[in-house]
Design a protein that fits this description.
The complex is a heterodimer of chains A (about 250) and B (about 500).
Chain A lengths: L12 H5 L1 H20 L38 E2 L14 H5 L5 E7 L14 E9 L8 H5 L5 E2 L16 E2 L1 H4 L45 H4 L4 H4 L15
Chain B lengths: L1 H34 L5 H32 L18 H13 L10 H17 L10 E3 L2 E3 L9 H22 L3 H23 L2 H7 L4 H5 L10 E4 L13 E3 L2 H4 L1 H14 L23 H26 L9 H6 L1 H5 L1 H29 L5 H29 L4 H19 L7 H12 L22 H16 L1
Antiparallel strand pairs in B: 1-2, 3-4
The chains are: A alpha+beta (about 250), B mainly alpha (about 500).
Chain lengths: ~250, ~500
């Protein structure tokens, strides 16, 4: 006696007949079909928030890009000062901590009698600052290690594809980008005396490519006012919250 | 909004293409008859129906299946192969597929039986393709002094031709599995041929009811060429529909699905199993089970693939012809036929009804794809027990019940009542969710609802002289009723 493979416990007539349940299933498919046929696809990048008749959940990748979550460790950048030079002081902290040893720095030194335009207030600056993005394991330790807030991974984009390996070796002109950042503690911001006005800190939460990737950060109202223009232009979409999974 | 307009425009384009090609077929057929020889329009119909309609629809179905299944699954579907910067609803992928298959290496395994290996795809494709020859896709019209039939062939053995040719497809699959000298291919071929042989039995039995009702096996007669013949009549309807008055005819047409809903379902399921597609895709699950054409590459594989799509079109056409009234409108056709403009331009009338036929076919193709993407695959033992233990007894029972009802009431009204009750019960079962003790009530309701049909005037009682074109409609009607009664005796 062969093994009785069909042990259907259901005594419900609709399921035993199979046909009513099949028609129900087909009608579900048909509903989806006609909804998506006649509905215009909502291109909202938050797929779960899409509205409208069409339920198509596709994000057409090269043309539309999914929003990376806040805190996403993207491509490195060297943070510029207000005058456009890198904030880096060539302390080798990042190169030392890097587990993949992908950072190479050559330091230069300001002459003692250099003019004020040369930012004489700091001693060293990088003449070469090279990151091999193919070696990088995107651990973010360099960002943690930097004492000067000179390297960040807040660009919100991943490493773009290239045709040669040499193109993945990023030097200062490729790395130095994004909104400038200045802190009150920076030596070039230090006041001579207390009669001078307070330095207005330009803490840039804005990411490179704002509007392109539309990184969303939870921003309290009182902080928003202090942000530079680039940050204010960031998309006004609400911050990603956990409650959207409750639907 | 623009999307809706675009979709409606595409619908219009498809309808226009159906209308245009059908009209062109009629005119070309008439020209061939007039200038070549009597009956040359059949050759034109071979070209128009088989090569233009079936092949083009089957080819476009390869794109449509991917696009439609994407829409059913909330995706977009193929849109990356672009022609002049426009994805053109996935048509670029079809062209890319065709180019790929034609240019790929056509590999024949060294241990294969070469003759049978080459013969198998021809059998699989040819049998599916030749099925459509007997399907009438439009009315016969008088044009340029000749009668132009929109059908490639009208053999006396109509439906039997369908069964005979459909069973040849088994050889294609069995030979493909065996001749490629591959163990998995052989297993797939065995699975496929066992399945097809099992379902051919129910495929044949499910149509016996239709043959008894119309007492013919010829498909054009089953569809009905003149009013009162085949499915071109009304079970109940107003005066115009019953042939006693003029004006717009409206009523319940004598379509197979109303008289033989069980036969319709059985034939549909059996034909789905014949096409070897989901939920009956045990012979070759696209992604999981190696099928009988493992060893095939290039256009030989392409023939197997396109034969599946041809089978979809052909079986939709057969279902429309047998159960959905063929090229006939559900109402108003007698009125339409009597319009002066239709009398004058017969090609216009023919093309209109041909469009109706192809729209029905397209709707059934959509239903087949919906079933494919809704139902899960049957296990192999479920598949065989469904075929032998469920469908065959049901088909036999359907034959007996239909025979008894046709014998009892040759006007087909009680048969229709039973059929409508069946459909109503199915509808009630589908739209309700409550436990099963409602089914009896549904039956009672159905009986009570349709009882009034019993007292209506009988079908062949009235005179049919109101119709200008229905010469001899009364006689054929009487003859059909007599033969329907006699076949039951």
């Amino acid at each position: 006696m062969a093994y009785q493979a069909s042990k259907d416990p259901s005594k419900e007539i609709r399921e035993r007949l199979y046909l009513p349940e099949l028609i129900k299933g087909v009608s579900v498919s048909a509903k989806q079909f006609f909804r998506n046929l006649f509905g215009t696809r909502d291109t909202n990048l938050e797929v779960l928030d899409r509205k409208g008749l069409s339920k198509v959940a596709t994000v057409q990748y090269p043309e539309e890009k999914v929003i990376y979550p806040p805190g996403y460790r993207g491509l490195h950048r060297l943070v510029p000062r207000d005058d456009g030079k890198p904030r880096c002081v060539a302390c080798y902290m990042c190169a030392t901590i890097c587990p993949a040893q992908c950072i190479y720095i050559e330091a230069g030194e300001f002459e003692a009698d250099a003019g004020p335009e040369a930012s004489r207030v700091i001693e060293k600056f990088p003449t070469r600052f090279v990151i091999d993005e193919l070696r990088c394991i995107v651990c973010g330790l360099c960002v943690e290690a930097c004492p000067k807030d000179a390297i960040r991974m807040d660009t919100g984009v991943h490493t773009p594809s290239e045709y040669t390996r040499a193109d993945f070796v990023y030097d200062i002109p490729k790395l130095l980008k994004g909104p400038p950042v200045s802190h009150p503690s920076d030596p070039w911001n230090r006041r001579e005396d207390s009669h001078q006005p307070h330095h207005q800190p330009k803490e840039a939460h804005a990411r490179i490519g704002d509007g392109l990737v539309g990184l969303k950060l939870p921003q309290p109202e009182h902080e928003k006012a202090a942000l530079p223009a680039g940050a204010a232009a960031a998309p006004k979409t609400p911050p990603a919250q956990v409650h959207r999974f409750e639907k | 909004m623009s999307r809706i307009l675009f979709v409606l425009f595409a619908f219009g384009l498809i309808l226009g293409a159906f209308f245009g090609v059908t009209a062109g077929g009629y005119v070309l057929g008439a020209l061939a008859d007039a200038h070549w020889f009597q009956g040359a329009h059949r050759l034109v119909m071979v070209l128009i129906l088989l090569l233009v309609f079936v092949m083009v629809i089957a080819t476009l179905l390869t794109a449509a299946e991917r696009k439609w299944s994407a829409l059913m699954q909330n995706r977009i579907g193929p849109n990356r192969a672009k022609i002049f910067g426009s994805p053109l609803a996935g048509l670029g992928h079809t062209i890319a597929d065709v180019v790929k298959m034609l240019t790929k290496e056509d590999f024949i395994p060294s241990a294969a039986n070469k003759g049978l290996f080459i013969l198998a795809p021809m059998l699989a494709f040819g049998s599916a393709f030749a099925l459509f020859a007997v399907v009438p896709a439009g009315p016969s019209i008088e044009l340029m002094g000749n009668t132009i039939d929109m059908v490639a062939a009208t053999p006396d053995f109509g439906v039997l031709y369908v069964f005979a040719i459909a069973s040849i497809a088994v050889y294609g699959t069995a030979l493909a599995g065996w001749s490629s000298n591959n163990k998995f291919g052989l297993l797939g071929g065995v699975r496929a041929s066992a399945q097809m042989v099992s379902y051919e039995v129910s495929l044949g039995m499910s149509l016996v009811g239709m043959m008894m009702i119309f007492s013919t096996v010829q498909l054009p007669v089953m569809v009905g060429e003149t009013f009162g013949q085949g499915q071109f009549q009304y079970i109940w309807g107003n005066d115009a529909a019953m042939g006693t008055g003029t004006g717009f005819d409206f009523g319940l047409p004598a379509w197979g699905i109303f008289m033989q809903p069980l036969g319709f379902i059985l034939f549909f399921v059996a034909s789905l199993a014949e096409t070897k597609r989901a939920p009956f895709d045990v012979p070759e699950g696209e992604s999981e089970i190696i099928g009988y054409f493992v060893e095939y590459s290039g256009m030989k594989f392409g023939l197997f693939m396109i034969s599946e799509f041809v089978e979809i079109v052909v079986l939709s056409g057969l279902l429309v012809v047998l159960f959905l009234g063929g090229y006939h409108l559900p109402f108003g056709e007698v009125w339409l036929r009597s319009l002066p403009v239709m009398q004058e331009h017969t090609w216009l009338f023919g093309a209109l009804l041909g469009t109706v036929f192809w729209v029905k076919v397209l709707a059934l193709i959509l239903v087949q794809l919906l079933i494919r993407w809704s139902a899960i695959r049957f296990r192999y033992d479920q598949l065989q027990s469904l075929g032998w233990k469920t469908m065959l007894p049901l088909a036999l029972g359907n034959v007996f019940v239909t025979g008894a009802l046709v014998l009892w009431d040759p006007s087909l009204r009680w048969l229709t009542v039973v059929g409508l009750v069946f459909l109503f019960a199915l509808l009630v079962l589908t739209i309700t969710h409550a436990p099963s003790d409602e089914e009896d009530e549904a039956h009672d309701e159905g009986h009570g609802h349709h009882d009034h049909g019993h007292t209506s005037p009988s079908l062949h009682g009235g005179s049919a002289h109101a119709l200008p074109s229905a010469h001899g409609a009364d006689d054929t009607l009487e003859a059909a009723a007599r033969t329907a009664a006699s076949i039951s005796h």
